[in-house]
Structures are given as structure tokens and as C-alpha cells.
Amino acid sequence: MYLKRLELKGFKSFPNKTDIIFKEGVTAIVGPNGSGKSNVSDAVRWVLGEQSIKSLRGDKLEDVIFAGSDNQKPMNFCEVALTIDNSDEKLNIDYSEVTIKRRAYRNGESQFYLNNKNCRLKDIKEILLDTGIGKDGYSIVEQGKVDEILSNNPVNRRKVFDEACGISKYRYKKTESERNLRNTKENLERINDIYVEIENQIKPLYNQQVKARKYLDLSETLKKLEVNNYIREIQRIEQQLKEINSQYEVLGKELEHIDKEKILFEENSKEVSIQIEEIDKSIEKATEYINSIKSVIDKKDYEINLLNQRKDNSSTKIKRNTEELENINKSLEDNKENLEKINNEKEEKEKSINEFKNQLNIFMEKNETNKNKIEALNDRIENLKDEIIKLLNEKQDVSNKLSTLNANKDNINQRNENIDVEIREINEKLKSKEELLKEIQDEINNKKEKIEDLKNKVNNYYENLRKLKEDNQNLNTKMQNNNYALKEYSSKLNVYIDMENHYEGFNRGVKEVLKNKNLKGIYGALGQVVTVPQKYEKAIEAALGAYMQNIITADENSAKAAINYLKHNKIGRVTFLPMNIIKSKKINNIQTRTNIIGIASDLISYDDKYRDILENILGRTIVIDNIDEGIKFARETGHKYKVVTLEGEILNPGGSLTGGSLKTSGNILSRKRLINEFNEKIKTTKEENASIQEKLVSIEKDIISCKENIQSYEEEMKNLDKELIFSNSSYSRYEEEINNFLSSMKKLENEKQNLGSNLSYTLQKKEVLESQIKDIDDKHKNNKENIETLNEELNKESEIYEAEKSKFDNINLQLTKDKEILKSFNADMERIKEYLNQLHSKKLLIEKENNEEENEIKDIDEKIILENREKENLKNQLNENNKGLENKKIARENLKQNLDDNNIKLKNIDKQFMELKEAIFKVESKIEKLESNKESNNFKLFEDYNLTYLQAIELRDDEIEINKKILDSIKKDIRSLGNVNVDSIEEYKETKERYDFYSEQKEDLQKSIEAIEEIIAELEEHMKVQFKEEFDKINENFKYVYNRLFGGGEGNLTILDEENILESDIEITAKPPGKKMKNLSLLSGGEKALTAISILFSILLAKPTPFCILDEIEAPLDDSNIARFGKFLKELTSTTQFIAVTHRRGTMEAADYIYGVTMEQRAISKVIALSLNEAEEMTDII
């Protein structure tokens, strides 16, 4: 186990996310004062639960959150995560990596996480107990901890030695046990108070329950007398109802006959009315059609008149257009003659102009040629003069360049020789370094490939392990939940089976009959033979009431035999339902607007042989959703039927209502369903558990295999990591040297290439320049000769040009005058042509219009003929439709007469129907009154004694004498008892149970106190033994380490109070080499520091902690002690990983890895990894 990673974000001077990766061995953290290197150790202490902000060099929690800088805003929270490699499973947690994280906000809120799951600080402390890791342990040692070890405060020193001796976890358990002991004693005190209170209540309750039992006996006698009185009254009413119902049936049949006749006449009237309505619609449609024909005829007349008007208009227009055409033709002839005359004059003038143009063109060509020659000669002369000046300047420039090139050529040749010598030397060095680099690169690549391959394998195994453990946990949880469920299912199943076997919920008499297998023809209680859907259980239980206790028999003889059995054994009364006597009384048709669920007998399942009995009992009971709907239904049906709601409320015939809390009858109706349900659940759960167990065995094997593979691969990766670090360091150094050689050689080669190019260019340029000078001289001579020849030619051409120009000007003047005359002729001709075009266009337009009008007249004549023909057809249709309309009106009158006759007959039948209805209503009123009286007695019976009539029949006794005197006597005896608390019977029972329960609790708590006290004593004894053994080891180690680190001398640790070893102060004495034994307070600063370091190393030898952070504890030591410190530190790395925050060279030299902490930006720390060579260079800077 070792510290693998530390992640900081927003903590103190680390605003940006910073990851520090640690390896096994010694890691040094270096940096200038104020760079934030000690904030790394503060971060570890803080994440492990340090609550004292002062010990972290702050005043309040928000001081550990980045406060901002010149370039970065303050942060609102900070976070530190510490990852521990737990592949050896030293921590008692099922993960190969354990990440402890703490997050704090400026509002003071602080949160802890364990592997990214929210947890308590207590959870983290429990995991780290007895590892030395923690804010109070010896895994983090800074200058303050050194002072604590050496201080006179015994408490601080004890914490370190308790952790080192491994008794912290036992001290923690002892503290927890003492807390449990206090809680248990407090619980015992509370139990005692309750026990005394119950003891004071139990005697008065006993007296009350004796009085209550006497009251119940008298009440039962009174109940028997009054119930029999109600039964006799209800039987008298039933006899009267039987007689009136017979009369009601006769009237009902007569009403049914009259009702059928009435329906026939109503249907006939309805049919005739429909026929009349259909004829009325037909008449209306025929009338509309006739009117539409008339409308079309009128429209046709109107259209014929319009067509005649259009024909007259077209004829008039043709006549007017013909006259206008004659005028246009005359104008066309006159303008054509005038156009021809002007055209002849124009042709004469054009011939004259052409002759002048020809003459001018000849003169223009001659003049232009002469002019171009003169201009060309002048341009050539000027160009030659400019070129001569340019050649003279150019010759001077070329001469200067030629001198410079000769000097450059000599310099280039000398530098080329020097570069060749330098390149040869570098090539020899480069070849040697490249061979070494290639060997190291191959080695690094091989190691990286191996590491990457191992990482992939480890990650795959970790992922598999995580999934396996997750599956294992989920399956265990599932199995545990299944086991709890099985216990619950089995318990409930046993209860329901026991209830079923013992006929729970049935009266004594019913139970005895059902148990007696010698009685023949007994089919079971009514509650046993029905199956009720769960949602209807309350409703059906309320509807059945006491009927559930009734027993179904084959016939009356079977019932009689069972009754004799009950009488003979004096075991109660039971109502029997003989199947051969009881017949169905089911409602056939219900007329209502209320939504009902159904008739009760239709909502349950049963064997068909019990149909008559169940329809007799439930066939006139309506099940409805709620009491509001029930009241609405009862009003609609005149309170004729019994209504029950899904919640068990009852609306009785006659209007009475029963409701409130429904006491179940021992789950009689639901027991079978529940037994089947729980049997199925148990079967399914057991099958699932068997499957889970097979999976768990397989997963456990896979987990062991994964762990073995992970351990093997990670060990191999660690070794490769160490080797790779050294290889990378060597590679970087050689690579840098090669790059320097290559860079130098590249510069030389570039320089040589540039020199070669320059030399070549110089030689070429020299030849070019020498050739240029010769060419310039030749050109200069030729240009002078050409200028003289061109001046002579220029004089001749100028004289010819002036003579020809005079002739040209005279001809051009006459040409201009003739052009103006020709322009006038052209304008006149264009005007006449335009007018002729307009006349032609107008003529064509008029001719076209005449043709269109003539065609229009032909079309109109054809349309007039067609319209007249359609008009005659419409007149014929009109005559035929008028005849059909008259026939329909006659048919309607005949149907109306039939309807009137039928309505007269229907009125007479309605009268008879209403008379019968009135008679039936009177009979129904009598029945309702009797039913109401009956229901009133039933209601009183139920209200007084919670019994239905059928339940009450079980208490019937025809021989019992009922008179007012006996009833009054019993009532007097009941009143003489005064206030009676019937609940006291149950209260006494419950209080007695509580009394017995708290007696047991009191005894259990006393035993618990004794057990906890025994555990505390055992813990103390174990702590004493372990502390003494471990302390002696540490003391022996201290003597050895002290001698080594001081190069001699003696050190000793002493327990001052051997009698109270667990609380005793520990004395530290030291004798540096060549000095007397001294108390710690007399030692120098360096001696104190080295003594404390000796104690720390002694503890680590006796009980190594996985990692240890040392924050500048060696600062006071001199160089020789630093060397010994560093050497001993290296020896301890076989068992402990060290992270040393330091600025001492000796400690850095002992380190395997070095991190530097710098502040590139003000107030912001940055961590960089350093190689050993870089660290040696940095030592001088620091």
C-alpha cells in the first residue's frame, strides 16, 4: 500500500487543477521559500480530516480556499483528493484503489467522499485506524509534530505512541463501548420509570375488567330477549307482505297487457307521422323544383333579348368602319407620290458627296503617312540620345561591381576550407551518440509497450473485478432481501393456513359442525365456497354479513342432524342452508341512470351447484362504487333494493344506512387467495435464491483469479516504471547532445552551401559584367551615327507634308455643305414613311374589326335558336311537375286522417294505464310501509346489537317468555353497575402484556450493561499488553536509531506510571555523543530535531506506515547529520514510502523522484517534475 496520487484544485496557492503522481521510494518536493511547497503537506492533512485551521496556518475555513491574485479571480470552493494504492488490501475496503476526497465552500460547508461516494469523517477514520495514517498519526510529520513529540504536553505525545503501538483502534472501540454503556444505562432509567408507572396502573384495571365482564353478561341476556322480540315482529310483517305481494302480481300482469297495447298504438302513430313528414318534404322539394324551372324560363327570355341587342350593335359598327377605309386608301396614294420625288433629289446629292469623300480620303492617307514618318523620326532621334546617357551611367556601375566581386571571391574560398574541418569533427561525435541513443530508444519502446500492455490487462482485470464485486454485492443483497421476504411470506402463509385449518373467524357452533366429519351432507360454510376478487372483498363481506357463518347442506335432513348435534353437545346455534329448498331470488332487470358495478351474486365465483343459494342471498343486492352513488340509486329505485359500496357501507331497503369502521371476519373471504399468493411467492423466491447461489459461487472464483492476476501484473509494472524513469533520463540527455551537434552541423552546412552559391554567383556575375562593358561601348558608337542620318531624312519629309495639307482643307469645306442638304432630304422621307405606316396599321385594324363583328353576328343567331329550343323543353317539364305535386297533397290528407283516428284510441288506453298505475302505486306504498317497518326493526336490531335478521335467527327461542317486567329488571341491574369501562378488559390485557414486556426489557438491559462493562475491561487489558509489547520494541529501536543518527550516544523512552500505563506520560531522555544525559529542554535545536527523527524512525521500524510525509523536519540539521538522515531514509523505503518537503541538498540526493514547486505567476503555485541532474542544478539555485 502506498500514496499513489494527490489532486488539488483551489486549495491555498493551487487554483488550477494539479495532479501529483507518487511512486514508491523517496520523493522530494523542493522550491524557494514562499513557493507553496508546504501547502502540499497541508493538503494531505486537510483531506485526512484536520479540523484545526490554525494548524494549517490559517484563521478560518475559507483561508484554505484560493483567495485570488492579480490575474486570477478568487475561487468559491477548494477540493483535495488523495488516492492510495490498496492492491495488497491492507485497508479493510473492497477496492484496489481508495480515493479520499474533501471539498469545502466559502459558506463554511465541508464534504467528505470515499471513492466518490459521500461519507462521514468518522467512516474515513475507521478505515485508516491502526495504519498510522491520519492527522493524529505519524504519517505526516512537520516541524509542529516534532515539537509535539518533544513537548511537555503528555496528551499530544500519547496520541503518537498510541497510534504507533496499534491501540488507537482499541481506544476507539473502548470509547464507543463507554458511549454505548452510558446510553444503555440511560435506557434502563427510562425503562424503570415506565415499569413503575405500569405497575401503578395494573391493579385498578383488574377491578374495572371484573365489573365490565359482569356488565357484558347482563347485556348478553338483555340482547337475547330483545332480539327475539324483534324477530317475532319481523315475522308478522313478512306474513302481511306475502299477502300484499300476491295482489301486486295480479295488478302487474294487467298493467303489462295494457302497456303492450299502448306501445302498438304509439308505434303506429309514430310510423304514420314519419310518412306524413316524408310526404311534406317531398312536396316542399317539388315546389322548389317548379319554382326553379320558372326562374330558368325567365332567364332564357332575358338572354334572347340581350343577344338581339348585341347583333344590332355589330351591324352599325361594320357600316361606320367601311366609310373610314375609303378615306385611308386615298391618303396613302398621295403620300407615296411625294416620297418618290424627294428620293430622286436625295440620290443626286449622295453621288456628289461620295466624289468629295474619295478625294479627301486620298489626301488624308498621304498626309497621315507623312505625319507618321516625321513623328517616328523625331522619336528615334530622342531615344538614341537617352540611350547614350544611360549607357554611360551603366558602364560606371558595372566597373564598380566588378571590383567588389574580385574581393569577395578570395574571402569565400578561405571560409570553405575552415567549415570542412569543423564538419568532419562533428560527424565523428554524432555517430557515437546516435548509436547510444538508438540502443536506449529501443529499450524504452520495449518497456513502454510492456507497461501499456500490462496497464490494459490490469485495467481490464480491475473493471472485471469491479463488475464482479458489484454483481456479488447485488446478488448478496438480493438474496438477503429474498430471505427476509421468505421469512415474511412463510410467517404469513402459516398464519393463514392455521386460520383456515382452525376455521378462524367462524362461531363456535360453525367450527364444531365443520370439524365433525361424521356429519353427512355438510358442504361447508358459505364464506368457504365463494371466491371473491380482492377489490370486491369489503363489499361482499358487508353484503353477506352473518350469512358467511351459515352452513350449506345437501337437504333439510342433513341440517336437522347437524342441529341435533349442536343441541346435544350444547355448543351453540348455526343457520343451515339446504340446497334442495332454497331457490334463487335474483333481480332480472334494473331500470336506473346511475352507474352500478353489478349484482353481488354476479361478481363472485362459486360452484354452479350453489347458484340458487348465492342468488337467494346476494341476487337482490346491488354493488356500487361509493355511498353518494348508492344514495342516488336508492332514491331512483324507491329504496327497494339492498345496496353495498366497495368500502362496505350498506343502504338497506326502506332507506336505512349502515357504515363506519368495518370489523373484518377473520379474513374468511380473502384467506384462500392469500394462501395461493404466498405459496406462489415462496416458490418463485426459492427458485431465484438457488439461481443466485450458483452465480455467487462462480463469481467468487472469478474474483480470486482477478486479484491474483492484478497483483502479478502490478508488481511487474512497478519494476518497469523504475527502469523506464532512468532510461528516459539517459535518453533525454543524449538526445539533447545529438540535437546540439545536428544543429551546429546544420548551421555549418547551410553556411557552406550559401558560400558555394555566393562563389558561383560571383564568377558568373564577373563574366556578365565584363561582357556588359564591351556591349555598352559598341552601342554608344552606333547610336551617334544613326542620329546624323535621321536628321537629314526628317527635313525632307516636313516640306512634302505642308504642300499636301493646303489642298485637303479646300475639298473638306465643300463636303460639309453637301452633307447638311442630304440630312434635310433624309428627315422629310422618314416623316412620310412613318405616316404611311400609321395609315396601313389603321387600315388593317379596321378590316380585322369588321371580320370579328360579322363572326359575332353569326354566333348570336345560332345562340338565339338554341335558347328558344331549351325554353320550350322547360315549359313541358313545368306542366308535368305541377301534376305530380297535386297527387302528393291528396296522399298527405289521407294519412292525416289515419293519424287522428289512431290518437283517439291511444288516449283511451292511456287513461286505463294511468288508473292501473295508481292502483299499483297504492299497493307499492303498502309494501313500502311494511318493508320500512321491517327494515326499521332490522335497523334497530343491527343498531342495538350489530346483527342482521339472519344472524338474529340463530338466537331465536320460541319458548322464551318476553315481557316488560323482565326487561326492566335486567336494565335496572345494568344501571346499578354505574359507569362501566368495557375497554378495561382489553386495556388490562394490553397493560399486563406491557408489564411483562418491560420486565423482560429491564432484565435484558441489566445483562447488556454487565456485558459492555466486561468488554471494556477486556479491551483495557488487551491495550495494556499490546502497548507494553510495542512500546518496548520502539524503545529498543530508539536506542539503535539514536546511536546511528548521532554517530554514538544513548537515547531512552520511559513510561512514568507503570500502574496506569494507558494514561501515563512518556519521558524521553537523550545523551548525545561525548555529553551527559540531558532532559530534552536542554538540547540544542539540531539535537532536538534529530532526537524526534530518531523516535519517528524507531516507530516506523516497529510499525511501518504505508507512507510518511516529512515537512522540513531535517531543516535544523547540519550537513553530516543530513547525510546520515538521508541514508537511513533510504533503508526504510522497503516498508514505507516517503514524501519529503525540503530545501536541503542531502535530502534531495537521497530522493528517487523530485518535484519542484514554483510561482511563475504571483500567488499561484505550479508543480514540475525534475530529473536527478536537473535537481542537482536546482540545488544551487535554491
From TrEMBL:
Superkingdom as given in the UniProt entry: Bacteria
Family per similarity comment: Belongs to the SMC family.
SUPFAM superfamilies listed in its UniProt record: P-loop containing nucleoside triphosphate hydrolases (SSF52540), Smc hinge domain (SSF75553), Tropomyosin (SSF57997)
Pfam family, one: SMC_N
The keyword ATP-binding is assigned to this record: yes
Recorded name of the encoding gene: smc
Gene Ontology CC: one annotated term: cytoplasm
Location of the SMC hinge domain: 520-634
Subunit-level organization: Homodimer.
Coiled-coil region(s): 174-201, 227-261, 315-485, 675-933, 988-1029
SMART domains: SMC_hinge
InterPro entries: P-loop_NTPase, RecF/RecN/SMC_N, SMC, SMC_hinge, SMC_hinge_sf, SMC_prok
GO molecular function: ATP binding; ATP hydrolysis activity; DNA binding
UniProt-annotated binding residues for ATP: P32, N33, G34, S35, G36, K37, S38, N39
Free-text comment on this protein's domains from its UniProt entry: Contains large globular domains required for ATP hydrolysis at each terminus and a third globular domain forming a flexible hinge near the middle of the molecule. These domains are separated by coiled-coil structures.
Places the protein is found: Cytoplasm
Stated role: Required for chromosome condensation and partitioning.
Lineage: Bacteria, Bacillati, Bacillota, Clostridia, Peptostreptococcales
Swiss-Prot/TrEMBL GO biological process terms: chromosome condensation; chromosome segregation; DNA replication; sister chromatid cohesion
Alphabetically ordered keywords of this record: ATP-binding, Coiled coil, Cytoplasm, DNA-binding, Nucleotide-binding
This protein's name: Chromosome partition protein Smc
